[in-house]
Write a structure and sequence with these properties.
Blueprint (H helix, E strand, L loop, with lengths): L1 E4 L6 H15 L5 E4 L10 H15 L4 E3 L3 H11 L21 H9 L3 H15 L1 H8 L4 E3 L3 E4 L15 H4 L2 H6 L11 E8 H5 L8 E2 L4 E5 L2 H4 L5 E4 L4 E5 L5 E3 L3 E3 L2 E3 L2
Parallel strand pairs: 1-2, 2-3, 5-6, 6-8
Antiparallel strand pairs: 1-9, 4-5, 7-8, 9-10, 10-11, 12-13
Amino acid sequence: MIYAMSDVHGQYELFANRVKQIRPLLQGNDDKLILLGDYIDQGNKSFACLKLAFQLEQEFGKEKVIVLKGNHEVWFEEFLFLNEDVWLAEDQDFLTSKTFLTKEQFEELHALSNQGERIRYLKTRIKENHKELLSWMRKLRLFYETDTQIFVHAGVEEELPEEEVEWCTFGTPDYVMTGKFPPAIGRFYKDIIAGHVSVSSLARDKNFRDIFFDGESHYYIDGTVAKFKRILCLAFDENTKKYYQFEEDGKFKEIYLNLKNNRLFNK
């Protein structure tokens, strides 16, 4: 089996519960877990989530636990190392960055009156505190490809000539893989499993909370965890080639296309 999750967004307890559920399934077999990025921001335990992803890879190896990079990790990296400030808009009241500081460092940060000094202090302390973790984060893969699938945070370039389509992962810019919008739907030469865009917006139903399947080649698994407090998990049986939604209660619910009121739903 291949299991996939995405867009944890600092919700450590929910992430840890899912990991506890899946960890025994990874032991002593060829099953894989693929994490599609966005471990940080929006929740109040971003550091713990990123560290847990790191520890899982260390425990099982990078070919059994595949950890990919999302756009929020890209923004964080650019803030720390390239002086880009896009990420600051996500870090309201230092919700994310304070999880990478000690309690004493966070108090020192608040004691600084100048915003420029705060930013410089923040970058310095985070980089000092977490050298190994940040080095690992910067080297995360952007996609994972099988014979029939591409796992990626946001998507790949699909508007390619037929003779070039098999090279899509090489021809897709990094920023598209982590931030593609709008999301693609329809037939593609491989299945695309992605996060990044909420399933409820794809289904055009604010109450939709399951894996979104477009009926062709695309599966989206961003369950808007900060709102619904649920991390979706896709499971793919490599023998039967069937996709399932792996539930919190351990049940496997087959994913299929069902047209209802001109919208796409799962069973």
